Amino acid sequence: MNYRRPCLLMAVMFVLGECISAEETGPLLHALSGAAVLFLTGAGLLRKKVRRGAAALLLFVFLLGFCRYHIAEQGFKKNQSRILYFGELNVALTGKVVAYYGSKDTYRVILSGSMLSSAYGSLRELPETATEMQRKRYDQPVGRIMVYLDAPADVYPGHEVRITGKMAQEEQPQNEGQFDYGRYLRSQGISGSMYGKRMEIVGGDVLPLWKILQRFREWCQEAFRTICTESGSGIYQAVLLGERGEMPEEISRLFQESGISHILAVSGLHLSILGMGFYNILRKGRLHQKAAGIFAGILILLYGTFTGCSGSAMRAVIMLLLQFLARSMGRTYDMLSAVGVAAVLLLLRSPYLLFTGGFQLSFAAVLSIGLAMDLPKLKWQIVETIRIALLLQLGMLPIVLYHYFKLPLYSLLLNLLVLPLMGYVLGGGILALALYPFSTLLARVAIGGGHMIIAFYKWLCEAVSTWQYASLVLGRPGMGDILVYYGVLLLLFCILERRGRRQERTPYLERAIILLIMFIQIWNLIPDKPQKTEITALYVGQGDGFIIRNRDIVVTMDQGSTSDKHFGENVLEPYLLSQGISCIDASMISHCDSDHYSGILYLLTETSAVRIRRMILPAAAKLDSRYDTLRQAAAQRNTEIKYMQSGDEMTVTEEKEKEEEKLAFQCIYPVDDTHIEDANTQSLGIMLTAGRFHMLFTGDMPKEAEEVMLQEMQRRRLVEDIDVLKVGHHGSATSTSELLLETLSPTYALISYGRNNDYGHPHQETMERLRQRGIRLLETARLGEIRIIPEQDGSIRLYHYRKAAG
Length: 806
Description:
Layout: H1 6-21, H2 26-46, H3 52-84, E1 90-102, E2 107-118, H4 132-136, E3 140-149, E4 159-167, H5 181-187, E5 192-204, H6 208-227, H7 230-241, H8 249-258, H9 268-284, H10 289-306, H11 311-329, H12 335-349, H13 357-374, H14 381-404, E6 406-408, H15 411-418, H16 422-435, H17 440-465, E7 471-473, H18 479-501, H19 508-524, E8 534-537, E9 545-550, E10 553-559, H20 567-578, E11 583-584, E12 586-588, H21 598-605, E13 611-612, E14 614-618, H22 628-636, E15 640-644, E16 649-651, E17 663-669, E18 685-690, E19 693-697, H23 703-716, E20 724-726, H24 738-744, E21 748-751, H25 764-772, E22 776-779, H26 780-783, E23 786-790, E24 796-800
Parallel strand pairs: 3-5, 10-12, 11-13, 12-14, 14-15, 19-20, 20-21, 21-22
Antiparallel strand pairs: 1-2, 1-4, 2-3, 4-5, 6-7, 8-9, 8-23, 9-10, 16-17, 17-18, 18-19, 23-24
């Protein structure tokens, strides 16, 4: 272990303290973090690399990280518990404006020192007979709150405001792969969010500097809207101002899938270009080194604040300030020491940053570059550049897969092509802003080169996206695999770095062995496919969504939601990608209600990340125009359409597998292809058979259709006792009859419905029928994502994403 960089070592100890304090890291990381603390301090003392005082300092920093996270976590929990007092009631929020951001359609303000109360009356006006809960709904401190507004507001940092509206009901992720919005808010120091309807200024003193920065930001936004096209304006606002509200969605997705999305945000790259560019201009103007450092430092500090203080931006600000300080003092600047200081300062300010993808990628990139530069230099500069770029990709790979699930295979090539031109993009935007007050035409000419470069970027990404394996869907790696990967990577680095210091050459055989080891570690990051049948019920809100897997086979049964209008984008696609699924063999849709197919329609029309080979519809849908949208979307993506009726069977498991491992879907309903007007009555009745396991899917089938289906089962002498029943119509009283339960005797009843839905699902009558028969209930609204894994001995293993609620 290298103890020559105490700042970096202290940052590691601080991070380990946070990892032990955080519940979300889990017992494995808790144990490994504790072991790492003992190893770092113990090894340093035994090898006499650190003195007792230094070891005590390291332990103090470790405890500081532990306590800082614990205090922040307790504060957030208290604030969030107070917010829960108000539910969906109309509330009044008072606080001091910290920041205001406005784009074309989105306006938001952040308040600090917020107090939350009922929108009606006050605590003093409550009668003596008021309950404790009624009293709790006044004057509750809730910390920082982000408020979304319907219209632009003329407010500035320092203003005291009162906003009426409703608090947003923040939910933790209910499915694997789902974005954790609550964690994002916490990383910004925000306890919750609110939808504001009316705002008034009630006092406060405006902070002059912050007012100037905000007005200048708004002026820049208007300037870009004037001199650029709509898409160009959105891009430049993101690149120079940190405002992504007007960024074209197709550009954002294209650049992300190509692995160059970092150029569309105010990142360390941008700040380095601007900060060092300004510093070099001042030095060429014969300004003293100290004065140049002071002026450049003030500029980047203001710019970092101006663009929203993101983690990666402030990391770059701190490192640049340290670089300017080192130059002014005539000292050597060490990148790894500087990144250690930046990490501690940022995590002291906001400990939740540690668990965000942006923070992890930003620091992993700098650490990878810094460590790569410690290795012996290669003879040819171009080869050295490629080596550093490769080591950068290796350092970031597990984090990219954990948060984004895909590997842009050609991102290294793209970054080598686009990064050298980024300075011209930034320079063109700044020059255009400088010329805009004098001439709109000159401003457009100045920014024209930047537009051409961005168009070149877009053409490059589109061209590369057509190449084979342009974006590999690998899935989210396990935490244990990530830790082993980084452990091996660090060990190999230590070996190579020590040999470099001793000026020893690494034999070619050892180089080949190192490459083989890294290939094995990369391969281990890919999550394993299930070796037996797994049925997953996603929490979709109000709707149905099931995924059946067995080795390489993926079949979906319904995928839709009426409560989440962005279900496909927010839930279904992230889940599939997190599991490493890029192809669905068959997508079965029970009937034409959108809460059963909206996610599939999204996959067919809005994204190319997941391919659907075959779509299965009920036979009654053949001449039904309500399915035309689905049919047209399937035709556009070359998805085969099949219709099923009673007697049809689909076996999708590979032929070489044993009989007890085969995965079969038997259609029991509808009886034939006769047109059925009622959509629910069209619902497919599908019996899933995997060995000794049987599960029945019934869509939204009413009792009358259930009776017809049972008659078909008796006529065809199909299995009667089943293991799992997918309760029809989300638990509605119109489905799941006594006859069905008596005939099939299910062990489990799986009910998919949304919390607090407008339909009252599941109906009490249905729940009573199930409970009276001793059927175990599996409810997505209480458990989130549910996974059912049948065993060969007839038993069933269950997994659910969250603890039972309610």
